[in-house]
Amino acid sequence: MSSETPEPERAAGAAHDPSHEPHEPHEPHEPHESHERHGAHGRVRTGAERWQAFKKGPFLPATVLVLILAVAAGLFAGSYTYTMANPSPHHIPAAVVGDPATPQLKRFVAGLDEALPGSLKVTSYATEAAAREAVEEQREFAVLRADGRKVELDVSGASGASVAQLLGEAGAKVGEAAGVDVEVKDVKPLQKGDPRGLALFYISLAAVIIGFVGAIQLSVHARGLNPAERIAFHVAYSLTGAFAIAAVVDWLLGALDLPFVQSWLILALTMFTSGMVFTMFNTLMGRWAMLPTWGLMVLLGNPSSGGAVSWPLLPSVLGHIGQWLPPGASVNAQHTAVYFQGHQHVFPYAVLAAWAVGSCTVFWVWRHRHPGGREKGAAHAA
User: Fold this and answer.
1) What is the mean pLDDT of residues 45-66?
2) Pick from 282, 281, 270, 259: which is nearest to 342 by CA?
3) What residues pair up with 94 in beta bridges, in sequence order?
4) Of 39, 107, 154, 228, whose CB has the highest number of CB atoms within 10 Å?
5) Which of 73-82, 231-240, 362-371 has the lowest mean pLDDT?
6) 64 vs 56: CA distance, rounded Å
7) Residue 276 and residue 212: Cα distance in Å, rounded?
8) Is the model's pLDDT at 14 over the cut of 80?
């Protein structure tokens, strides 16, 4: 056999022999070659360029959120501590039946007014029935009357557990100091499953929080919803969520005996209103919508709602503002529905409806600004 390499193999070997490749002259190394080769990446950026990159990247909103969350944490703790940690009486309306000039009644009222300086607002009623009707209408928080040598103090736990407790404790001390026998009686007690009167506050708080959290989740996970569809899903999760809250508190835990349908619909309206408030701010402010929503509904609305601390013990300004905000309106409507049936007030329902309609109107008018929805062409293609 011939030992010569076949022509194809020699050709292939020659093709890969580096000795056959022409040598290129080596260029001397330039110290700035890497800067020229990598362009802007190798150049030290100016302060203005670094600031522009910071603004366009994720670090600016992340830094702002760190600062916002720190401030929000302080405000959250401060607002609840200011209104709830040490409540003091500001305006406690009380009814006096009969002649307020009766000696023992006069001494007792004077002592009670001194114990609660400037807070007790006494109104005279000719009959017991008129005074009780005022309590049912939530215009008065207590009824005082003279009965022989003693004074009867009727408080209404359902009107406000914290106010009833304050009046009962102060009344006993004042009677002892004034030498007057005092009989304290709760004529409108809270339900057994809710001895502190906080359950209504908690279910209203749940409706408020889940309301705007649901709106946030829709904006993240169902971004493509068109305006009418978005409102429809707000209605859907409000009805189902409110039903779940009422069912758990009443049927499962037995903490409250609710007028079920009425309480359910109040909770649903509260949840829908809260969700639409966030949607309104999301339309107007984009990704920062959580700031005004949290401030309005949680920092201001919940502490001033009168649910945890009755409005006579709240700072007077907060007590008035809270009635015009959705959390306060929800607590008031629920409170009357549970404890004062037959004495409904239109005002809290009107407040909730006004916020709901107003938020929906703003969202609908400026719906083109809302960071959601889908193009018509995409919808047809789908």
Assistant:
1) 81
2) 259
3) 122
4) 154
5) 73-82
6) 13
7) 7
8) no
